[in-house]
Amino acid sequence: MGFLSNYPLWSAIIAILFAQFIKVPIQLIATRKLNWSLMTSTGGMPSSHSAGVTALTTAIGITQGFHSPIFAVSTVFAIIVMFDATGVRRQAGEQAIVLNQLAAAFYKFVEDAKDLQNRKELKELLGHKPLEVLFGIITGILVSVVIYYIVY
């Protein structure tokens, strides 16, 4: 299987790109604000990490068999990635929110700090809620199956 015809690889890449793109209209519907930076940010609905690893695992299952050792490896990899997305990365985002609030309160009390506009806030949208991961999983499976039936 050549690089350009590597169905599992392209399924994963397309699922990631699709999940990142679809965040923009979902956010637009939810907040009435157009935010193109979501296409390159972490976190949000759906989880592109979950979509990518699920598309990869689904494509491997379709091409190599759901009983194959490589499918087992990919499944464990996907579980670890999704667990991390909802656990460690989400908690880091929660901590960033609190730290940003503390920094804002500190700067509010510091009267002689003139250059407040140049301070850099920590990134708060790092991880995913379980629902975001679930929709990432659904996105990954659907993208992988659609690509399989279109190309193969």
Low-confidence stretches: none
In angstroms, what separates the terminal alpha carbons? 13 Å
Per DSSP E runs of 2 or more residues, the count of β-strands stands at 0
- How many helix segments? 5
Number of individual domains: 2
What proportion strand?
Answer: under 5%
Reported for the largest beta sheet, the result is: none
Helix-strand category: mainly alpha
Mean pLDDT: 83
Helix content: 55-70%
Q: What string, H for helix and E for strand, traces the elements in order?
A: HHHHH
Bulk shape? elongated
Radius of gyration: 19 Å
Task: Characterise the protein shown here.
This protein is mainly alpha-helical and 152 residues long. It folds into 2 domains: 3-82 and 129-151, no CATH class; 88-126, no CATH class. It is built from 5 helices and no strands. Helix 1 (7-31) runs antiparallel to helix 2 (48-64). The protein is elongated. This is Divergent PAP2 family protein. InterPro entries: DUF212 (IPR003832). Keywords: Membrane, Transmembrane, Transmembrane helix. The chain crosses the membrane at residues 7-30, 50-83, 133-151. It comes from Heyndrickxia acidicola.
Name the descriptors.
152 residues, mainly alpha
Brief write-up:
The protein has 152 residues and is mainly alpha-helical.
